[in-house]
Amino acid sequence: QMDVDVAGVDKNIGVVHEELGRYEDALDAFNSARAVYASHNMDVAVVGVDNSSGVAYYFLGRYEEALSKYQSARAVYVAHDMEVDAAKVDQNIGNVYDGLGRYKDALDEFQSARAVYASHGMDIDVAKSDQNIGVVYDELSRYMDAFVAGRSARAAYVAHDMEVDAAKVDQNIGVVYSNLGRYEEALQAYES
Question: How many C-beta neighbours within 10 Å does residue 170 have?
Fold first, then answer.
């Protein structure tokens, strides 16, 4: 049992390294934790670490490794009827697809996650999904859809007094206006 406790500490250390942008150190800590969890057949703990490792791989630009970790995590979460955890992985997979320029795949993942969050009344997570969906719609040149998704995210953030997140959406909306050649409106969005 002591080694499982140490594995939990290793995972936490990995998360801190990740937050500090020390992704290789994070992966070392995650791999240490994963090995212990695997030796105890703790499959949900293993994929929790895999999901965290996927984040590190994503930020290192190692997208295929991130996808592999995320997909294995998602499969276990689905097998254990852990719908919300699977949706969080879908969100991560969407980020990877977005990074790879696979915008339609990213959109599918973000919309899948959003549907789960909405069914559980998770307003903030719905807003985060809407924000990502808006960005992808912009990348797909579906500008009106980008506005709808962005405005939905912004309204939720404002309702929850999340001004910084609302400002990030304003920046995204500004990009959409710029892409449409509506520069005065872009400036208004950037300055709001």
Answer: 17
C-alpha 173/C-alpha 143 separation (Å) is 9
Taking the model in full, what pTM does it have? Answer: 0.89
Which of 53, 84, 45 has the alpha carbon at shortest distance from 70?
Answer: 53
Collapse the DSSP code of 81 into the 3-class scheme (helix H, G, I; strand E, B; otherwise coil) and give the result.
coil
DSSP 6-73: HHHHHHHHHHHHHHTT-HHHHHHHHHHHHHHHHHTT-HHHHHHHHHHHHHHHHHTT-HHHHHHHHHHH
Tokens representing 4 are 């499982």
What is the sign, positive or negative, of the torsion defined by CA atoms of 87, 152, 58, 179? positive
Beta-carbon contacts of residue 73 (< 8 Å; ≥ 6 apart): 47, 48, 50, 51, 54, 89
Taking only the tens place, the pLDDT of each residue in 53-96 is 999 999 999 999 999 999 999 999 999 999 999 999 999 999 99
Token pair listed for 163:
């001004």
* Dihedral sign from CA coordinates of 126, 82, 111, 179: positive
| Amino acid 177: pLDDT | 95
Backbone angles phi and psi of 31, in degrees to 5: -65, -35
How many CB atoms neighbour CB 121 within 10 A?
8
Q: Give me 34's structure tokens.
A: 């994963």
